[in-house]
Write a structure and sequence with these properties.
Layout (H helix, E strand, L loop, with lengths): L1 H24 L9 E9 L12 E11 L23 E4 L5 E4 L5 E2 L5 E2 L5 E4 L14 E2 L14 E7 L22 E8 L5 E12 L5 E4 L3 E4 L10 E6 L4 E9 L4 E4 L8 E6 L2 E11 L2 E3 L8 E5 L5 E5 L7 E3 L17 E3 L15 E7 L8
Parallel strand pairs: 9-23
Antiparallel strand pairs: 1-2, 3-4, 3-7, 5-6, 7-8, 9-24, 10-11, 11-18, 12-13, 13-16, 14-15, 14-17, 15-16, 18-19, 18-20, 20-21, 22-23
Length: about 375
């Protein structure tokens, strides 16, 4: 009996070494999963049952089990090489339609555009619909279309930015993209036309002054106006009359009498319209494409954004629903080669990436658009 027990141990050890040798031989095989020999005791069984002093008859290899642990993932120069992180298999079919499963993700494209492995088995999976959404259905062989991708013109953009609440009103009120003193800040994005050609779209933000008060009376050092709401020490008031216009810097404000005090002017203002640089919570936005101004649908500017006391977008002019979603006029209205009706809708009020007016530097958090150019593999 002892000879049989020892021989069983040698046989089991031999199979164990075979298993280890197979693991070592496949150390560089992509997708290979190592095996492990699992041993079990052997007992002699008699019709009378086992006794208290029953001795086993040796050992045996009960099973050789594959270990589906995560392997190393490495980079290659083949863009179709794919690795699975975690559980799962690649589903492949041979020429007869027989289905196999593999962890080996070394793939290439055959002459017909099908993705295949090294045995020419086709990789199968789920196809997307026209919008790119994948719905699980019957898996089919995956084939790559070699034709040029149809471009998509830019129709929508999401803008998430912070407009600095501390910013002053620009020195030049008339917007000019070539004059940085006529706006506060700007950013740019790529815009694709109907043929997939790219263009540079630029957004400009110009802080607006408050609605100026109207003239009541004045001396050379004081002026009484209809309201001092929104005015602050350091703001300026420009009086049109008498000509030439005179600009005064406010040094004190009396909110009870609606009177402002300033350094002596050459002559006492006598009336006419008043302008001011006191900033409001409203900003005009302007759009250019390749340097050409693109107006809004009803205004020279794209839109006017107004914010509440908490810095949140409160309203848009022209009024839009939802707030902050505004559409430009046609981008290329005179074109005879691309769509002349293409317009661009901006969403400044996105719940996840809305535009704000806080006391921090200007910054763009989100700027995305939905167009793309043509291309091929």
């Amino acid at each position: 009996m002892s000879f049989q027990q020892g021989l069983s141990g040698l046989n089991a050890s031999s199979k164990h070494l075979d298993t280890i040798g197979n693991n070592v031989a496949n150390a560089n095989t992509v997708g290979f999963k190592q095996s492990q020999a699992q041993f079990a005791d052997m007992f002699a069984v008699s019709l009378a049952g086992t006794g208290a002093v029953q001795i086993g008859t040796g050992t045996k290899v009960a099973a050789v089990a594959q270990q589906f642990t995560q392997g190393n993932i490495t980079n290659t120069n083949n863009p179709l090489d794919t690795a699975i992180g975690g559980q799962g298999f690649f589903r492949v079919t041979d020429a007869a339609g027989a289905i196999s499963y593999s962890r080996n993700g070394q793939f290439q494209v055959d002459k017909n555009g099908f993705i295949v492995n090294n045995q020419a088995h086709k990789v199968s999976g789920y196809l997307p619909d026209a919008t790119g959404v994948i719905f699980p259905a019957a898996p089919v062989p995956l084939q790559i279309n070699a034709a040029d991708l149809t471009p998509k013109q830019t129709l929508n953009a999401v803008v998430g930015a912070n407009l600095d609440s501390r910013a002053a009103v620009p020195l030049i009120p008339a917007f000019n993209a070539l004059d940085p003193t006529s706006y506060n800040s700007s950013t740019s994005l790529t815009v694709y036309d109907s043929l997939g050609a790219s263009h540079v779209g630029s957004l400009y933000f110009q802080r607006q002054p408050i609605t100026p008060p109207t003239f009541t009376s004045a001396t050379t050092t004081t002026a009484t106006v209809s309201s001092v709401a929104g005015l602050a020490v350091g703001n300026t008031l420009t009086f049109a009359l008498p000509a030439p216009a005179q600009t005064a810097t406010i040094s004190a404000i009396n909110a009870v009498t609606n009177t402002v005090t300033f350094a002596a002017l050459a002559a006492a203002p006598t009336g006419g319209p008043i302008t001011t640089n006191a900033p409001s919570a409203s900003w005009k936005t302007f759009l250019t494409v390749d340097g050409v101004a693109v107006p809004g649908t009803a205004t020279p500017e794209l839109a006017t954004l107004s914010f509440d006391a908490l810095g949140k977008l409160a309203s848009t002019f022209p009024a839009t629903v939802p707030i902050g979603k505004v559409t430009s006029a046609a981008l290329f209205p005179t074109s005879t080669t691309v769509s002349p009706t293409q317009a661009l809708t901006f969403d400044f009020g996105s719940p996840t990436a809305g535009t704000s007016q806080y006391g921090g530097n200007f910054g763009v958090n989100t700027l995305t658009q939905d167009g793309y150019t043509s291309g091929r593999l």
